[in-house]
Amino acid sequence: MKKSLNLLLGVAIAALVATSCCPCRKASNRNHLPLLSTEWSLVQMDGKNITSLFTPDETPRLILGAEGSFGGFAGCNSMGGEYSMTPSEALSQKDIAGKISFANIMSTKRYCPNDQVEMALFEHLSKVDAFTIEGNRLFLFDDGELKLLFEAKK
């Protein structure tokens, strides 16, 4: 009885060690682009595809720096500001996620004949509270609702 209990305990410990240290678990996160220093191009806002509204050079984009500042282009004007985040690993081990907020958002003041997308982008960024990265996509949420979807610029 004692021998079979020790064998069972040994098998259970070996299985636990094998699954918790598996390099493939850590490798799954390597497929995700880093949040910081990646140039993210806006592809959807409020569930609507916006790529047809812009030429590739005019597409709104966002780059988060390591020091809590961000910059980018809003479609007509350059933009920048500050962000803060609290990253956390999602339970699925496939997604990178966490809390994020943007503040002190500023932009240049060029005349833009069609600035609805730009104004909506600034509004959404000021309310964003969470993010998730899946592969080459960055999802920004406001109170659990997807507001902005970015893809890494090729």
What can you tell me about this protein's structure?
By secondary structure, this protein is an alpha+beta fold. It folds into 2 domains: 1-31, no CATH class; 32-152, Lipocalin (Beta Barrel). It is 23% helix and 39% strand. The chain contains 3 helices and 9 strands, in the order ααββββββαβββ. It has an 8-stranded antiparallel β-barrel. The chain is globular. The model is unreliable at 2-29 and 90-94 (pLDDT under 50).
The proportion of residues forming helix, as a percent range, comes to 10-25%
Secondary structural class: alpha+beta
Mean pLDDT level: 80
Number of β-strand runs:
9
Low-confidence stretches: 2-29, 90-94
**Amino- and carboxy-terminal Cα gap:** 62 Å
Helices, by number, come to 3
- Element order, helices and strands? HHEEEEEEHEEE
Radius of gyration: 21 Å
Overall, the morphology is globular
As a percent range, the share of strand residues is 35-45%
CATH class categorisation of the largest domain: Mainly Beta
Main-sheet strand order equals: 1-3-4-5-6-7-8-9
Whole-number total of structural domains: 2
What would CATH call the architecture of the largest domain?
Answer: Beta Barrel
The largest sheet, given as strand count, sense and whether it forms a barrel, is: 8 strands, antiparallel, barrel
What name does CATH use for the topology of the largest domain? Lipocalin
